[in-house]
Write a structure and sequence with these properties.
heterodimer, A: 239 residues, alpha/beta, TIM Barrel, 8-stranded parallel β-barrel, 10 helices, B: 386 residues, 6-stranded mixed β-sheet, 4-stranded parallel β-sheet, 45% helix, binds pyridoxal-5'-phosphate
Chain lengths: 239, 386
């Protein structure tokens, strides 16, 4: 089976809309959702997601509100939180509460693009984290990755930040990495067409789509956003 | 080691790691390469104007009943200490075979110093600058443009220095192979805090020699303003562990209790910003706060990790100065010494009033830059008072 993760920025344009999108996503065959936790300084993100975060923060969205929503919804698919180190490690309720809240919300793992492999043992976070690999990652990192056994490994498919784009390079490296990495390998950053999805699925275990969905949201009014996201996913899945 | 005890590190996207490794390797190589330092010292001396004088400020000394010296970094080419670092890093970039230079700037001083060094060595240069800062520091924008640099306005986030750093990092992630990111302060992921410190410590090394030869002893105090922390690290570093009292002065803006300031070391919590674990001004939920200071160069919600370490270990004492106090110090220095200091540096000078040095004690103040770039801001403030 091939996996599909959808990225949704929490609180954009408001938490109510996020909730409705998450419920609507029950109707498509996806593996899971990455909930984007807004951060003021998202260095790994391009303009589409930056804008979403800025707007969400203007509405005073915080991680506690996101947890409360997730606990209430009890969603059938896998949930991951994607954010940056600072809003996670400086969670307003404290680190011990963070772990409790993560568990209650059934979060399977954290995705932290500013946490590279070299720092993985230098932070106080006893919770599963997804690890990143890139086109320039060498095989010498693989023993450490296999030792940690993350829920999945996130392959960044481009030199650049999040955002849609046309070509999809560096896929030969994916195959080499996948043969050596024990966790499932998902590919993200720049995935925006059915052809991309097909190509990724031919060499990796899963695909992650973010900015392409947010772009569809941006085209319609909030009330239409859940349907717009589902429609785009169906298009990407070629159904 | 990429840490200063618990502070620092490399909290950046995985895709940047090979670039940081490449930088570290190249830096280690030039550190032991005599020819590199000969070349750097040639440019520092004949182009930038080192060594800078340690000037005995007679009238200020009379007023404060102390022996006050100004380390005249303001006399350097382009008007601030920033050029020490940019010439060093440009030579490093050339050794690494990079053809394109990117940099962030707040006050525009680092941008101008980068544009200057890039022009000197014929490298293409792009500077990211917050839209708000471009407005505050217009003359520096023009200077960069005349020097052949493309200044790109940053419209994201708070449109100031921190967002310009974000945008530079994004550019770097996208253009790793050709591009050298020339960071302007002792911030960012390892090895930047180390590289910038080692290019700036010449300020302290000269000061040590000069004060020894003039006073035949070490100073009692050294004062320097702390934004990202490069001019202060530069003058403090050679004195760390000595008996000299080192005081770093942060921007208190409208006051520490107003929330409108930039004093990360005094009011920040430990966090992660721009690749480094350090003190960060942030809200309850870990969102980085927008800061305020009359001086764009101090308007930054984080601080170099080595300062965080010095703060926690008590090696340096940190305090703050408000906008209006800094502004007063500009006029005092101008009218008593004939020197118009940069608003950043004026924070260090203004601290004389708080320090109340014991009679006859020797105080060295790092005059990190000149005030030409701030004339518009200063005049605006004057008009407000009228
Ligand atoms: C004259 C001057 N002093 C000080 C600073 C603050 O930077 P740092 O703390 O890195 O020395 C700046 C920054 O632009 C500056 O232009």
């Amino acid at each position: 089976m091939k996996h599909f993760l959808a990225y949704i920025p929490a609180g954009y344009p408001d938490l109510k809309t996020t909730e409705r999108i998450l419920l609507e996503l029950k109707n498509v065959p996806i593996t899971g959702v990455e909930i984007g936790v807004p951060f003021s300084d998202p260095v790994a993100d391009g303009p589409v997601i930056q804008k979403a975060y800025t707007q969400a923060l203007k509405k005073k969205i915080n991680l506690k509100l996101i947890f409360q929503m997730l606990e209430r919804l009890d969603l059938p698919y896998d949930l991951y939180l994607m954010s940056y180190l600072n809003p996670i490690l400086n969670y307003g309720e404290g680190l011990s509460k963070l772990k409790v809240h993560l568990k209650k919300a059934k979060v399977k793992g954290l995705i932290l693009p500013d946490l590279p492999l070299v720092e993985i043992n230098n932070i106080q976070l006893q919770y599963p984290v997804v690890l990143f690999v890139a086109p320039n990652t060498t095989f010498k990192e693989i023993p450490l990755i296999n030792k940690i056994r993350p829920p999945f490994v996130y392959y960044i498919a481009r030199y650049g930040v999040t955002g849609t784009r046309n070509d999809l390079a560096y896929m030969d490296h994916v195959i080499k990495l996948r043969n050596r990495i024990k966790s499932p390998l998902y590919v993200g950053f720049g995935i925006s067409t059915p052809a991309h999805v097909k190509k990724v699925w031919s060499s990796a275990d899963g695909v992650i789509v973010g900015s392409a969905l947010v772009k569809e949201m941006d085209k319609v009014k909030p009330a239409q956003m859940p349907k717009a996201v589902v429609k785009k996913i169906q298009n990407l899945l070629n159904r | 080691m990429s840490y200063f005890k618990e502070f620092g590190g490399q909290f950046v996207p995985e895709i940047l790691m090979p670039a940081l490794d490449e930088l570290e390797k190249a830096y280690k190589k030039i550190r032991r390469d005599k020819r590199f330092w000969v070349e750097l010292n040639y440019y520092l001396k004949h182009y930038a104007g080192r060594p800078t004088p340690l000037y005995f400020a007679r009238r200020l000394s009379d007023k404060y009943k102390a022996r006050i010296y100004l380390k005249r970094e303001d006399l350097l080419h382009t008007g601030a200490h920033k050029i020490n670092n940019t010439i060093g890093q440009i030579l490093l970039a050339k050794k690494m075979g990079k053809t394109r230079i990117i940099a962030e700037t707040g006050a525009g001083q680092h941008g101008v110093a980068t544009a200057t060094a890039a022009a000197l060595f014929g490298l293409q240069c792009v500077v990211y600058m917050g839209e708000e800062d471009m407005e505050r520091q217009k003359p520096n924008v023009r200077r960069m443009e005349i020097l052949g640099t493309r200044v790109i306005p940053v419209l994201s986030g708070s449109k100031t220095l921190k967002d310009a750093i974000n945008e530079s990092l994004r550019d770097w992630i996208t253009n790793l192979r050709t591009t050298y990111y020339l960071l302007g302060s002792v911030v960012g992921p390892h090895p930047y805090p180390l590289i910038v410190r080692n290019f700036q410590k010449i300020i302290g090394e000269e000061t040590k020699k000069q004060i020894k030869s003039i006073e035949k002893r070490m100073p009692h105090y050294i004062l320097a303003c702390v934004g990202g922390g490069s001019n202060s690290v530069g003058i403090f570093y050679p004195f760390i562990g000595s008996r000299v009292k080192l005081i770093g002065i942060q921007a208190a803006g409208f006051g520490l209790s107003t929330g409108k300031h930039a004093a990360a070391l005094l009011k920040g919590r430990i966090g992660y910003l721009h690749g480094s674990k350090t003190f960060v001004l942030q809200d309850q939920w870990g969102q980085v706060q927008t800061t305020h200071s009359i001086s764009a160069g101090l308007d930054y919600p984080g601080v170099g990790p080595e300062h965080a370490f010095w703060k926690k270990s008590g090696k340096v004492f940190y305090d703050s100065i408000k906008d209006n106090e800094a502004l007063d110090a500009v006029f005092e220095t101008a009218q008593m010494e004939g020197i118009i200091p940069a608003l950043e540096s004026a924070h260090a000078i203004a601290y004389l009033k708080k320090l109340k040095p014991k009679k006859g004690s020797i105080v060295v103040i790092n005059l990190s830059g000149r005030g030409d770039k701030d004339l518009e801001t200063i005049i605006k403030e004057l008009d407000k008072e009228k």
